[in-house]
Amino acid sequence: MLKFEDLDLDRLIEQVLAGVELDRESARAILNCPDERLGDLLAATLKVREAVFGRKVKLCMLRNARSGICPEDCGYCSQSRVSKADIPVYKLQSIGQLVEGAERAAHTGAGRYCMVTSGRGPDARDIEHLGEACDRIRGQFPQLEICLSLGLMDRDQAETLKGAGAGWINHNLNTSRRFYPQICSTHTWDDRVQTIENVRAAGLSTCSGGIVGMGESDDDLLDLAYAARRLRIDSVPVNFLNSIRGTPLQDRRALTPPKCLKAVCLFRLLNPTSEVRAAGGRELNLGALQGYALYAVNSIFVDGYLTTPGLAAAGAREMIERMGFEVEERD
Ligand code: SF4
Fold it and tell me: DSSP label at 37?
């Protein structure tokens, strides 16, 4: 088995930047980088990140537009029908509330605002309502990128949302095709890929990543990172499992900060020109080392996640500056 010590990092960076796909054994060696060589891995990954994105960091803000009561059974999710987590439960928020969320995002300097709804997928009324919200937000905050995460979606729905002003659709692959049945039985990995293809066919940008730490093997994580590359995903959020009490995965705690950093390096080196974003569970799993994720990612979430808190925008800005990076400001 190829070891991290066997890699020629300068050559590897050159190849990655030339568009050559990292071979699987090198990718595996990156994921298994010894902790004492993590500094070398981060420095190499930073060169790729800097060559494409400089030192800029895009801030993203989420809005949980409908919370809970989901008929699906994703094991990591506090909003699923099998979750007993104590979370707020509410129906689709009003257009006024969604626009107010966009206003908050714009005022904190977020580049992207993502409205998320629980559920298997949107119905016609959801599409109409969210389309109207997109239209209003685009009119009032034209500099803000609008993303929606609504579950499984067909091409017509995606086209309607694009026409209303959405630029991005998030739909995470979450893990490998092989491991997917271990975390969800109500839909398949292939269903998720189909949504990504529908979104792209509608002319929208794709946002799709996964969750590290759900009990997957290194091969599963490698499969996911390669899937993001081969599906040409534009934006790849890397979440780190926050094992929420009351969810089926509540006792899974497999991550360490170095493991999380190796994972984001892997995603960056396999997806050099895509946005790679440190997402949910970043604060919990990386702790004081979360700033080092910026060596690989060019985007982070601020002000929390769907049902869990996170670093506020002011704290995130401070961290970004302290680490020698700069927030990508909107005009
Ligand atoms: S479909 Fe979405 S909201 Fe529903 S259980 Fe799965 S992740 Fe949670």
Answer: G
Contact of 228 with 207, CB cutoff 8 Å: no
Q: How far is the CA of 6 from the centre of ligand 1 (A)?
A: 41
**Structure-block tokens of residue 319:** 């961290």
Contact 158, 198 (CB under 8 A): yes
pLDDT at position 331, please? Answer: 63
In the chain, where the domains are located: 43-326
Structure tokens at 328: 């990508």
Query: From 3.10.450.50, 2.60.40.10, 3.20.20.70, 3.30.420.240, which CATH number describes the 43-326 domain?
Result: 3.20.20.70
Q: How far apart are CA 314 and CA 303, in angstroms?
A: 9
Which of 248, 313, 309 is closest to 282 using CA atoms? 309
Residue 156's DSSP bridge partners are: none
Tens of pLDDT, residues 303-327: 777 777 778 888 899 999 999 999 9
**Model-wide pTM > 0.85:** yes
Distance (Å) from CA 8 to ligand 1 centroid: 41
Tracing tokens 């066919």 back to the chain, one arrives at 201
Mapped onto helix, strand or coil, the DSSP state of residue 240 is: strand
Written as six digits, the tokens of 154 are 């067909």
| CA dist 92 → 81, 101, 171, 258 (Å) | 17, 13, 18, 38
Q: Taking the CB of residue 210, how many other CB atoms lie within 10 A of it?
A: 26
318, two tokens = 């401070």
CA 50–ligand 1 middle distance (angstroms) = 34
Atom of ligand 1 minimally distant from the CA of 71: 4
